[in-house]
Amino acid sequence: ENPENVILTETDGRVGVITLNRPAALNALNRATMHAVVEAAEAFDADPQIGAILVLGSEKAFAAGADIKEMKDKSFAEMYASDWFRDWERLGRVRTPLVAGVTGYALGGGCELAMMADVLIAGPGTRFGQPEIQLGVIPGMGGSQRLTRSVGKAKAMDMVLTGRQVGGEEAERMGLVSRLVDDEAVQQTAREVAATIAGFSTPSAQKAKEVVAAAFETPLQQGLVHERRVFHSLFATQDQQEGMDAFTEKRPPRWSQR
Ligand code: CO8
């Protein structure tokens, strides 16, 4: 396996696409892959031509977790000193909206990576799970926190304590999935959703992501004030003028985007 190829990147219009590419390991997230995903996402985030980032896996596996073989013989001291998984915090700081097209297994770190997306598209055949308890550990890339915030205690405890896999339909009912489509349509739909987002004004898409994400971090009153201030700030952009002029003139807007 060539560490250069653990992911594939391409641009599709204004969408930056990251495809996990370790088919023989069901896209298990080893350090090289984690690093490559984070670097690619940051590069797209810095690129003014990109308005959304799309993360895809393969038909069989979005990602079957952190790489168990890479971790298995590590000591506590090694895990602690290297702060294993800390790189993912950088993905959380990416301002460009992140869409995931999740097909096949999304287990452990794969489920956690999917939950880092702002919009998650899945199909009935997608399988979400936090099976770490079956390995004598617990989720380590945000599973206990992001899953609980998105589906509540009852479902999160069930998944984290039993390791039970949840299919796409149940996951959608639980609130884990933004849109459930046919399995064969997941990647294409995710591409279209990313293209839609990338077609809007970049400042408003980034600010929309920022304020929704803030709802998980802040008390309501503070979040409402933050939203209002960010809303006000968009009146400093050309795109606000253009969007509202276009509506009034009954024509499509021409975004300056960035
Ligand atoms: N890591 C490494 N290799 C993997 C992983 C993984 N997570 N998942 C699959 N593979 C490998 C298999 O070992 C196999 O390799 P080989 O051909 O060399 O034997 C290859 O991928 C194909 O897999 P299978 O033959 O097992 O395929 P099946 O279709 O039979 O089964 C499953 C698919 C059900 C997805 C099965 O592979 C499986 O159960 N995988 C592991 C799922 C799992 O437990 N994931 C959680 C990992 S732990 C984690 O993500 C977070 C840990 C947090 C630790 C906190 C530290 C701070």
From TrEMBL:
It comes from the Bacteria. Keywords: Fatty acid metabolism, Lipid metabolism, Lyase. Its EC number is 4.2.1.17. Belongs to the enoyl-CoA hydratase/isomerase family. This is Probable enoyl-CoA hydratase echA8. Could possibly oxidize fatty acids using specific components. It catalyses: a (3S)-3-hydroxyacyl-CoA = a (2E)-enoyl-CoA + H2O; a 4-saturated-(3S)-3-hydroxyacyl-CoA = a (3E)-enoyl-CoA + H2O. GO terms for molecular function: enoyl-CoA hydratase activity. It is an enzyme of class 4 (lyase). CDD domains: crotonase-like. It comes from Micrococcus cohnii. GO terms for biological process: fatty acid beta-oxidation. The keyword Lyase applies. InterPro entries: ClpP/crotonase-like_dom_sf (IPR029045), Enoyl-CoA_hyd/isom_CS (IPR018376), Enoyl-CoA_hydra/iso (IPR001753), Enoyl-CoA_hydra_C (IPR014748).
